[in-house]
Design goal:
2 domains; binds zinc ion; 32% helix; three-stranded antiparallel beta sheet; 9 strands; globular; alpha+beta; 34% strand
Length: 185
């Protein structure tokens, strides 16, 4: 029975090694773009499909980046989750006749049901919130602009870096509370 035991040891070692390597890569990726006060928005339209992806340090939206420790923080998580589900409080498009199909919100640090050290937060204690919105647009060719509404809801947010590809055009712009509108043509 010596040989199978060795194989088992080897596979456990290998699995552990790959798991920690993956976690480090993800942590690095998260940390590289994690700046409090700044969020990023990716907007990609192709045919009738329009996708909006928001990534923000949890601090900007929730005011903390750890698992909710009391009732007040749990209520804050629910409140922010509801706000983010309401896309009109996040981003509003001019033209396009776009209808929201799906919202997917990921708050890793808030996922108390699947608590693991890696998913919870990185070693530095930072965590991001990621939200994906999927729209279907009846007249995508008439999309002309977007207005970021997040600043009104979340005063801790100072900048949103927007990258967009719409109707074959692309661009990027940093929006702020005093300059929250972006022309998409
Ligand atoms: Zn942070």
């Amino acid at each position: 029975m010596k040989l199978p035991k060795c194989f088992q040891c080897l596979s456990i070692f290998t699995a552990t090694f790959f798991l920690s390597a993956t976690a480090s890569a993800e942590e690095y990726e998260t940390q590289a773009s994690h700046v409090h006060g700044v969020a990023s928005l990716f907007i990609v339209q192709e045919g009738n499909e329009l996708e909006v992806e928001l990534t923000s340090p949890a601090m900007n939206l929730l005011g903390f980046e750890h698992s909710p420790g009391n009732e007040q923080q749990r209520r804050q998580v629910s409140r922010v989750s509801a706000q983010l589900h309401n896309v009109n409080q996040v981003v509003v498009f001019s033209g396009g006749q776009c209808q929201l199909l799906e919202v997917d919100i990921e708050m890793p640090a808030m996922d108390v049901d699947h608590h693991t050290d890696h998913a919870d937060h990185s070693e530095s204690g930072h965590s991001d919130v990621e939200v994906e919105y999927e729209f279907s647009c009846q007249k995508p060719e008439t999309i002309t602009a977007l207005e970021v509404k997040l600043f009104e809801q979340f005063p801790a947010l100072e900048e949103v870096d927007v990258q967009w590809i719409v109707n074959g055009q692309q661009g990027g712009k940093t929006l702020s509370p005093s300059d929250s509108r972006l022309e998409l043509q």
